[in-house]
Amino acid sequence: MSFRLGTAVLLLLLPAFGCEPTARSYHAEGLAEYRAGNYESARAMFKAALLEKPEQQESAYYMARCCRVSAERKFAEGDYPGALRELDEAVFHYGQAIESYPGYAAAVEEKSEALRLKGKYTEALRLSIWAKDNAGRTVRQLVNVAHEFEQVGDMDMALTRYRQAVAVEPDNPLAHAELGRFLARQKRYAAAVRALENAYRLDPSEPGVVADLATYQGLVAGEARAASTPIEQDDE
After folding, report:
1. Mean pLDDT per 10-residue interval, the chain, length 236 residues
2. CATH number for the domain harbouring residue 190
3. Residue 234 lies in a domain
4. Exposed / middle / buried, residue 205 (Cβ in 10 Å: 0-12, 13-18, 19+)
5. C-beta of residue 187 within 8 angstroms of C-beta of residue 215
6. Does the pTM exceed 0.90?
7. Are 93 and 106 in contact (CB under 8 A)?
8. How far apart are CA 188 and CA 155, in angstroms?
């Protein structure tokens, strides 16, 4: 057991020996654990601090941050329901911090970011469920449906079908390539390059990927140069 973890456990056990740690001492140890990257130990300390003093906004804020870290880890592992539960708890604790101190700008900003991530994670969960329910459908079928939506001008549904193709077969280079080409047609060149890079990584020989990738990488580079070039004013 590490010294820091041992200290955290000792603080939690102090009441059994007749000693009463304060919310401030729990918070201080939680902050030390947080800064050391020991987020679960930190979370236990912040929880103890909030049980002692629910209005302690700093403990609520860092508790929310620990939940965010856990949510991001679970999302990376593919545990979308677990990630959403952690984000729900993060939003709650950010709200707790804001209620205690309405001027807590960092908590307000990070709560908004957590809510944005909830939308992203919910979409990932929806796609994951859809992929399981539609595992028999092929990438080619989904791409053809996407093309049909695109031809009638329903770009939202077209994008959904391209993304579903990727969700059904994430290791299929065709799915990533078609998604990339669609994004390029929408002039979303940076996102198109990322999708085409995924296709190239899976199969460098996928038809058209090398040429398309070079084209859109050039356009992204051109946009970057244009954004960094000062606009010259015409002489009146």
Report:
1. 47 48 90 95 94 92 96 88 91 93 88 87 73 68 87 89 89 95 95 96 94 93 76 42
2. 1.25.40.10
3. no
4. exposed
5. no
6. no
7. no
8. 13
